[in-house]
Amino acid sequence: MLYRTKVPIGIRILNNFRGHLVHSQTGEVNLSEPTGSLGINYWINAPAYGRGFINIQKERMSCMSRKEARRRSIASSVLRRSHQLWRMGIRTCVTWSTLLKLCWRLLKKELDTSVSRVSGVTFSNEDGYSRQMIIEGLSKHPRGLYWLGLRRERNNAYDENAIRVDAIRVGNKSALLGYLPRELAQVLAPEIDGGKEVYVVDFTFSQGWNGIYGIKVYYACI
After folding, report:
1. Per 3-state DSSP, what percentage of the chain is helix, strand, and coil (rounded to 5)?
2. Is the dihedral of CA 98, 99, 104, 109 positive or negative?
3. Which residues lie closer than 8 Å to 194 by C-beta, 6 or more apart?
4. 148 has pLDDT over 50
5. How far, in Å, CA of 18 to CA of 34, rounded?
6. Helices (H), the chain
7. Which of 86, 207, 208, 219 is the most core-located residue (most Cβ within 10 A)?
8. 152 and 196 in contact (C-beta within 8 Å)?
9. Which pTM was predicted?
10. pLDDT tens-digit profile of 75-101?
11. Domains along the chain?
């Protein structure tokens, strides 16, 4: 496979792996490397640049279709976004393979992201803990130790379509923070009961002038 790469004029490059010596007079040289090689270490010996190893990324001279170039660009973006969400804590709610599929469909605009406030954040849980205290504590913790998840609560005495919002920590420990609004739950509950999943892809905390903490969740249904 033939590649093209640009190097400063007059620099002598010695391929450390194959011992192939290349002298550049034009600033552009052609290198023959194994198929699939994305970059390789070269030894530079030049008065103006000193000595040392550098890594030169080569560009394929063969024509690449726009479709393939776009696919590779999307794949790279998917990996970056997936790693970012994984480090931020979404690993407590989804598997890596599911996260890749989710980010792929989001970046290809096959899925829409919606936003909703969380209701019932001023109440206390059955164990006596105040949801406001829990939310306040989470808002002061760095991302990466927890994430927010949506779960159906079919045995809810007040709403048969109830969808609860939980803070899920590492180790699968969770705490109830509130519920999706009744009107939204009425739409999403049949989708979840039909086999679809709703994932939180981002969330924000806020505090009003009265000191009450609120939550917004950004979610996608697949």
Report:
1. 25, 35, 35
2. positive
3. none
4. yes
5. 11
6. 66-88, 96-107, 131-139, 182-193
7. 219
8. no
9. 0.68
10. 899 999 999 999 999 999 899 999 999
11. 2-60 (no CATH), 66-93+101-105 (no CATH), 112-221 (3.30.70.2330)
